[in-house]
Structures are given as structure tokens and as C-alpha cells.
């Protein structure tokens, strides 16, 4: 049996030092500037959401959720034109504190991310993204395995399900929980590190399980309609860290199941 699929030998989500997660170090390393792989992800997600809403802010904006928001704002910013409320759902106490500071007025490095989103239809209708994020977003601390069912009208989950334990069982449970939290017909975007071996943040090592495009597709497919999956190779000579082989982005709509 693969150790990562065996709950008795895996490092589980509850065993990792999430409250000691160094949010500042993580954000500085990953998002101080806009990397080429994140650029590709943002373009895919931006265009997916814009196409779903036909490039115009809906007359009745939906509620959105970013599951495992961590120290990353661009998934929430990608949902901003389409949402009246965005729940940024996060377990780590340190990440919760970081998110609340950023929501109150995010740092200038995120302007580059917003500028890329602005190239998509509908995003220019947000005239003051800092003010709109402050008004729409709320940060909620909690366990993603206990998300309510069919509550939100769109959702994102970036680098979470495969980056929280070494257990493939927990990976599948996390993806299922995310999908089940969305109402039927809701657009979603999810991103995953491919074949991740775990990662260092500050003074702590955090677990991951190695997943492939097949794993992502097999887990999301029962919940999805019109799903598209894209693999993004690490930029040559500029991988964000060691111990992974690429990134996987899945976009689609929550099915009726």
C-alpha cells in the first residue's frame, strides 16, 4: 500500500503546525512579484469567470468562497467583480491574521496581480478593488472538512487539498468538501501542485501528497460540468521551490449531483 494513502502512516492535516505558518515569509517568497506560472493561472481563471458571467457584473451578485485562502489574495480578487460577499476560509491562525490585515487594505505588490485581472472582461467595472474587497470579504477561521453544503455561488481553492497532508484520502476529502460547498451551476477554479513532496515555510516543514492531473480529474469529475484542466510546467530556471513537477488548474461548473 502507498504510505500516502494509508491513514495509519500518513502525516495528517491535524498534525501539521498550521498556527505557526509564517504568512509573511510565504507571501514574500511566492507573491512579492507576479511569476510567470501565476500569470498563466490568473489568465485561465479570469477568463473562465468572465465567460461564465458573460463579461458583465451580474444584476444579482453571488456569494463566493476561497477555501484555504492562506497568504494569497489573487483567488479572491479573481472573484471580486462577480460577488457581493466573499468568504475567505482558513484554518491557520497566523494566516487568518494576515488575511484580515490585507483585506483592510492590501499591500502594493497585489496591484500587479489586479492589473492582469483588469485585462479580462468585467474587471474594469471594479473601480476601487481595495475598497470593494474590504466591503465584500470576510475572513472565517475553520476546518475545511466541515464546510456547509451547497452554500456558495462560486468558489476557488488554490494549492490546498494536496498541500495539507501526505494522505491521498484527505486530498480526496478536501476536494469533495470544496465541491459540495458550492451550489449547482456555480463556477469554480482550483489549483494544485503536481507531485509535491512538501514545502518549507520559515522554520517549519509542511506536508503534501503527490497528485497528478489524473488524480485531480478523477476527484473533481463527479461534481463537475464543462471542466477543463491545464497543466503548467515550472518556468525554466525559476521554479518556486524544489520538490514538484508543475501546477494543475481545473475550471468548471458545479454539477447537479
Automatic annotation (TrEMBL):
Listed InterPro entries: NNMT_TEMT_trans, SAM-dependent_MTases_sf
Keyword Methyltransferase recorded: yes
BP GO annotations: methylation
Keywords annotated in UniProt: Methyltransferase, S-adenosyl-L-methionine, Transferase
Pfam families: NNMT_PNMT_TEMT
SUPFAM superfamilies assigned to the protein according to its UniProt record, in alphabetical order: S-adenosyl-L-methionine-dependent methyltransferases
One function term, GO molecular function aspect: methyltransferase activity
PANTHER family per record: NICOTINAMIDE N-METHYLTRANSFERASE, NNMT/PNMT/TEMT FAMILY MEMBER
NCBIfam families for this protein: SCO2525_fam (NF040568)
Protein name (database record): NNMT/PNMT/TEMT family protein
Organism ancestry: Bacteria, Bacillati, Actinomycetota, Actinomycetes, Kitasatosporales
